[in-house]
Design a protein that fits this description.
The chain has 297 residues and is an alpha/beta fold. The chain contains eleven helices and nine strands.
Length: 297
């Protein structure tokens, strides 16, 4: 069985798209848990309609603690399926996703990492993000190329082994989850075919309207990757390619943090055994000093 967990917050406008994409999978053995997370619109009315329409498949749940991670964990506690499909209410699954991913998983895989299409609603633009088949999973994570919440498929035992989602994070939750699952010894496989459509609008978690919201995203991104790098170093998993690719992205992100200090950034890089030299780092350092000069004026 596949248990589909959908956090529902003011999603009356688009919940039908997500639900119907599940129904259209054509997989016989599934259940859906719709978790109302403090909605103030007609979301609960729509949830009730789906419970009535699919009484043996759909169940309703209410989670008072705000945040998608609280809602996902609440659904996970009552899920009966061997596999868990987390699906954001504004996303949709593409046909045959489950059939393909279950075949890939077999008996030995704990997480199927899926490819997806990101839809920039306001720009009327789409972009495909394919999984890096054959790429080291740690490199994929450090480069933010290890799927996304609605595109992946998780074995329930792998999720419960790490106590589900970290409710204290406001972003980078799926990569934190994957990091902890991998540390527990789980195995992963890539699904190279597109399996989900991710709809992104201004004001979403990934595209906040405020400067403070964007700073939180940057801080969570940097903090998680520092933890990952420390773990890889501790476990002697580092190699030159991982280090070099990671050094460039982490250096840039740390310099973009609010109140960033060159000395502090270099101290972190030295602690992780990463380069602070090279053309990409010199370019980012130049941008940092130019920005500081302009702000002082």
């Amino acid at each position: 069985m596949i248990s589909v967990i959908i956090p529902c917050y003011n999603c009356e406008r688009f919940l039908a798209r997500a639900v119907e994409s599940v129904v259209k999978q054509g997989h016989a053995d599934w259940e859906m848990i719709l978790v109302n997370n403090n909605s103030a619109d007609g979301t609960q009315r729509l949830i009730d309609q789906y419970v009535m329409q699919y009484p043996t498949k759909v169940s309703a749940l209410s989670e008072g603690k705000k945040g998608a991670c609280h809602a996902r964990n609440a659904g996970l506690k009552i899920a009966r399926g061997e596999w868990i499909q987390f699906l954001d209410a504004d996303d949709e699954l593409l046909p045959k996703k489950w059939e393909r991913q279950l075949q890939l998983a077999g008996a030995d895989i704990d997480v199927v990492i899926g490819a997806f299409t990101r839809v920039y609603v306001e720009l009327n633009k789409e972009e495909n993000f394919f999984t890096p088949y054959g790429t080291n999973i740690w490199q994929a994570i450090l480069r933010s190329n290890a799927g996304i919440t609605s595109a992946n498929l998780y074995r329930r035992d792998a999720l419960t082994a790490v106590n589900g989602w970290d409710v204290n994070l406001s972003s980078s939750q799926e990569y934190d989850l994957l990091f902890r699952i991998l540390k527990s010894g789980a195995s992963v496989i890539y699904d190279t075919a597109l399996g989900a459509r991710i709809y992104e609008e201004s004001g979403s978690v990934s595209r906040p309207r405020s400067k403070e919201g964007m700073e939180r995203i940057v801080n969570n991104y940097v903090d998680l990757r520092i933890r990952i790098a420390s773990y890889l170093k501790q476990e002697n998993i580092w190699n030159s390619e991982l280090k070099d690719r990671y050094a460039v992205s982490l250096y840039e992100m740390m310099l973009n943090r609010k109140g960033a200090s060159i000395d502090n950034v270099h101290a972190v890089m030295r602690q992780l055994g990463l380069k602070t030299s090279g053309a990409p780092q010199l370019f980012q350092r130049s941008k940092f000093y130019i920005k500081k000069f302009i702000l002082r004026r």
